[in-house]
UniProtKB/TrEMBL annotation:
PROSITE patterns: G_PROTEIN_RECEP_F1_2. It comes from Marmota marmota marmota (Alpine marmot). The lineage of its organism: Eukaryota, Metazoa, Chordata, Craniata, Vertebrata. It is a multi-pass membrane protein. The keyword Transmembrane applies. InterPro entries: GPCR_Rhodpsn (IPR000276), GPCR_Rhodpsn_7TM (IPR017452), Olfact_rcpt (IPR000725), OR51/52/56-like (IPR050402). GO terms for cellular component: plasma membrane. This is G-protein coupled receptors family 1 profile domain-containing protein.
Length: 287
């Protein structure tokens, strides 16, 4: 009896991911659209990266930021979807502690990095529309993008890193995660320890990072709208829409469905941008 009691309270070393527990008989069917959308997202982002890298006319801050967004999307896709497909196709539900907390770290840090990238892109639009004469001196080409990338990475990695660290310090005796991913709340609530600190930190950091990005994005577009409405010059509205319209669509889609829509809306951004379409045509002619 003592041995049985010890076994029932033994700490575990891996989790089991249970995707859609009420629809497990549909898993193979669910894998079909997920596979197609995964290929679409990966193909679109890879194509954008290739075009921006090959086409010299696209070596501008806006397109470098779009490249960064595509890289973030690719990493997020590779972090989540292959494991979900492995569950759907081969019933490979176990995930080790290290893999689970690594996935948690990547999702938290990269999703907030995407949000921060949107904010920097909004700032780029703001300077282009509201201070066009100062644009070359403020948005200084690759140097601006390098500084922006360092800021985006450092801010979000450093502030989100404690989330998986705090979760990894907890003791776990329940191994079944009723989710397809190792999100902080899905995992930490399985612990037999107090998770108040985990919940509080994620709440504060989530609202601080995503909330501040959203506020700055709204402010940027408010100033842009104010300038456009004040400027009666012919073509002012068309210029603003051409410069920032696709980016605004990108943000609206991404706000709805996190990283997945971000991947798809990179396609929207690329298709609506004349330079990207020209780059695609040149790439096809080379092939």
């Amino acid at each position: 009896m003592a041995s049985s009691s010890n076994d029932s309270t033994a700490l575990i070393s891996e989790f089991l991911l249970i995707c859609f527990p009420n629809y497990q008989s549909w898993q193979h069917w669910l894998s079909l659209p997920l596979s197609l959308l995964f290929l679409l997202a990966m193909g679109a982002n890879t194509t954008l990266l290739l075009i921006i890298w090959l086409e010299a006319s696209l070596h501008e801050p806006m397109y470098y930021l779009l490249s960064l967004l595509s890289l973030l999307d690719i990493v997020l896709c590779l972090t989540v979807i292959p494991k979900v497909l492995a569950i759907f196709w081969f019933d490979l539900r176990p995930i080790s502690f290290s893999a689970c907390f690594l996935q948690m770290f990547i999702m938290n840090s990269f999703l907030t990095m995407e949000s921060c990238t949107f904010m920097v892109m909004a700032y780029d639009c703001y300077v282009a529309i509201c201070h066009p004469l100062q644009y070359p001196s403020i948005i200084t080409g690759q140097f601006f993008v390098i500084r922006a990338a360092i800021f985006i990475t450092a801010r979000n990695v450093l502030l989100t890193m404690p989330i998986p660290i705090l979760s990894s310090q907890l003791r776990y005796r329940v191994r079944i995660i009723k989710n397809c991913i190792c999100s902080n709340m899905s995992v930490s609530k399985l612990s037999c320890d107090d998770i108040t600190l985990n919940q509080l930190y994620q709440f504060v950091i989530g609202w601080t990072l995503l909330g501040s990005d959203l506020i700055l994005i709204v402010l940027s577009y408010s100033f842009i709208l104010k300038v456009v409405l004040r400027n009666k010059a012919e073509g002012a509205v068309a210029k603003a829409l051409s410069t920032c319209g696709s980016h605004f669509i990108l943000i609206l889609f991404s706000a709805q469905c996190c990283w997945f829509w971000s991947s798809l809306t990179c396609i929207v951004y690329g298709v609506r941008t004349k330079e990207i379409k020209q780059g695609i045509q040149k790439l096809l002619r080379r092939l």
